[in-house]
Amino acid sequence: MATTTTENGGGGTSGSKDYKKPTAAALIGAIQLGIGYAVGNLTSKPDRDVLMQDFYMVESVFLPSEGSNMTPAHHFPDFRLKTYAPLAFRYFRELFGIKADDYLYSICNEPLIELSNPGASSSWFYLTSDDEFIIKTVQHKEAEFLQKLLPGYYMNLNQNPRTLLPKFYGLYCIQCAGFNTRLVVMNNVLPRALQMHYKYDLKGSTYQRHASCKERAKFSPTFKDLDFQEMLEGLHFDGDTYSALMKTLQRDCRVLESFKIMDYSLLLGVHVLDKKCLDRGARADSKRLNGQRVLYSTALESIQGEGDGKVTEPVADDDTMGGIPAKHKDEKLLIFLGIIDILQSYRFIKKVEHSWKALVHDGDTVSVHRPSFYADRFLKFMGGTVFKKIHPVRGASSKRKRSSIHAMRSRKTLRSTWRIVITVVTPVRLWPWKTLSPLSIPKATQTLYTLSTCEE
After folding, report:
1. Which candidate among 7, 66, 270, 321 keeps its CA 20 to 30 Å from the CA of 382?
2. Domain named PIPK: which ranges (predicted)?
């Protein structure tokens, strides 16, 4: 039987443990079945405005394997599903144009794809087969923090849906075999259809920001800040794109700073444009190009201002997959990016961690830092080291035109000026009745005479 309760931050059962799954298949099956039931059950509720109490509501339902009057039978172990702030997340999905049927089709129709985790956390990642959504397991404190963050997150999305911040579509908890698995559904930043030749997790810090040997040995490793500085000389954008990108990053960082959030990263994917690879990727993902369901989901859409007209809108036959055009030396690139890992607040434990690391290393180089300093360092690194503006050569486009149109006039001016120099240096007869030396001509008269001759 389904029940609706209010929890402060979505805390779990006392003494429960996180990140323990009976089997991978059982967990994935419970996730798909549970989300399918929760979203399907929500469609029967009428639309209305989101109220403050909606951000703290938790719906709980028990799904036994033999089924019940309210739930379907299944072949997984018995489990309980908790759905956090269901009405608020329904609003978020609608804001990004996600229909309930499409959401269910993406998550429940095909098996989820398990991804590797390059970070230091113990989170697991699952990708939907249509490349739209990422399902990530989170710790209890992260789930609690996200629920407390929802009112401010709601306000920010209302003001600006075009953002590089994570787009959260649902928060759930699976209780199975005595263990809790909390998970959040988010947007996918890096499309699988295009090969990411380089991937980076960038924080703007330098302390221990090299990819490990284990990570480097992977087929598609994720590098870090120091690796970027050693491998690339910066990614170059045209002036308008650079300005739009940095403006978006600045706005997003100020939002995170206001929530006292730090230790976030910029996930950066670099695709080197190659005709052969591009054609293969475009065919593999033609479904998404022609029928994209989520609004503002691509990197290019996320940095565009409303109606600014400065950055080209992606079109259906555009093979860029919503990537941002860039250059590195003579290579043409597509850039995919998004801010990730924003559920780290500057709590007491983080302050202790920063103080301890600062005793051994330079405090300004470590990742953990107070939110204002972290945001400034992050923006400085992105705007100066990672992203750079292409400076056009001034007047290069019109130089040849000016030289061709005014060639005769320039030569005439040169001859006139040469005559003036000769006239000033040698004694000349300027008037029929008097011969003057150069020293006898007043300086003002020389200047005016030279200008009038050049204009002729």
Report:
1. 321
2. 23-386
